[in-house]
Amino acid sequence: MYKRIAVHVDRDGAFERRIAAAVGLAQAHNGEVVGVYVQDPPYVYGYNESLTPTAVLEVQRRLINDERQQVQRTFEHLTASAGVPNSWSSVEGLRDVELAVQARSSDILILSQPDADFSRRSSIEPYQLETVIMTAGRPVIVVPYDGGLADPVERVLICWDGGREAAQAVADAAPFLGRAKEIVVLSLDQDLVPRTGNRSAVGGLEAYLRAHGYVAPKAVFGSSDGVGIGNAILNTASDHGADLIVMGLYGHSRAREWILGGASREILATMTVPVLFAH
Q1: What is the DSSP code (8-state) at residue 213?
Q2: For residue 197, what is the domain's CATH number?
Q3: pLDDT at 45 over 70
Q4: Positive or negative CA dihedral for 205, 274, 135, 250?
Q5: Contact residues for 25 (Cβ-Cβ < 8 A; gap 6+)
Q6: In a 3-state reduction of DSSP, which class is residue 157?
Q7: Is residue 254 included in any domain, yes or no?
Q8: Domain count for the chain
Q9: Residue ending a domain, choose from 108, 143, 178
Q10: Contact indicator for 245, 150 with CB cutoff of 8 Å
Q11: Same-domain pairing of 137 and 167
Q12: β-bridge partners, 35
């Protein structure tokens, strides 16, 4: 169960939807929600030294404190009105580093998809999001910027290649899988996966899911040819009406592309379904 759910709170356009997702999980698992606010360090000018006048620094800190207090009040109101226990953590530092640190003392971290509209403020940049996923040591749910997390999550798509990261993602998603009414297992490009090379790895996962008493999964075998890995995953999620995608680092020979390049950017740029990432 997810007993301690961390959520990134910031004054961007999606933070109330992130809180709503965290509240829904906490209610489902009798858990608590931890609001994580990361304050950027003061701006530094010049060459290796701060030339910012004291008065300017004071104005910066006052504005930051005003924003933090507004966000904290909203967070506490939304959680308390839902009857969910809450706690607050405000830290100063690099956003990706501090979010990863805070995630390690929670069961799961909730973030938002970076906003593609650069005229609006986004809570996190794509490179920061990837860093958090890779270093948190906890599962990270990324919700679409203009969407949320279904309550309850009934249809789950598992991206499976038989690798360590995919196995970790399945284990991390256990609270969702145990409540799901439909589970789809997607295996792409089997001819490119030398570690498994055949469909037996999917059969092993099916046996694992049955042993845990989860609903019987449906196996789907596909190809990313002509569309790319990310789009193949999103298309399958749409075809099956998935409420949640579960995935680790998609571990075949294009693993580095997956986490740092094309596939992850396809998912993050066009996602309409929340994704649980694990590494």
Answers
A1: T
A2: 3.40.50.620
A3: no
A4: positive
A5: 2, 5, 31, 108, 110, 149
A6: strand
A7: yes
A8: 2
A9: 143
A10: no
A11: no
A12: 7, 88
Strand partners, 221: 187
Find how far residue 109's CA is from the centre of its chain.
7
Residue span of the structural domain in which 48 resides? 4-143
What tokens were used for 233?
């995953």
AA identity, residue 167: A
pTM, to two decimals? 0.88
Same structural domain, 16 and 129: yes
The percent of the chain in helix, strand and coil, each rounded to the nearest 5, is: 40, 20, 40
- Final residue before a domain boundary, out of 143, 173, 206: 143
Q: What is the pLDDT of residues 97-108, one digit of tens each?
A: 999 999 999 999
Statement: residue 170 has pLDDT above 70: yes
Q: What is the pLDDT of residue 256?
A: 42
Residue at 279 is within a domain: no
Residue 206 domain-assigned?
yes
Residue with tokens 């008493």: 213
> 38: how many CB neighbours lie within 10 A of its CB?
23
Beta-strand ranges (E) seen in 152-209 are 155-159, 182-188
- What pLDDT is recorded for position 228? 86
- Please name the residue that has the structure tokens 């309550």: 151
User: In whole angstroms, how large is the CA radius of gyration of the chain?
Assistant: 20
Look at the block and give the residue holding tokens 């986490």.
259
> Both 92 and 72 in a single domain?
yes
Residue 59 DSSP label: H
Length of the chain in terms of residues written: 279
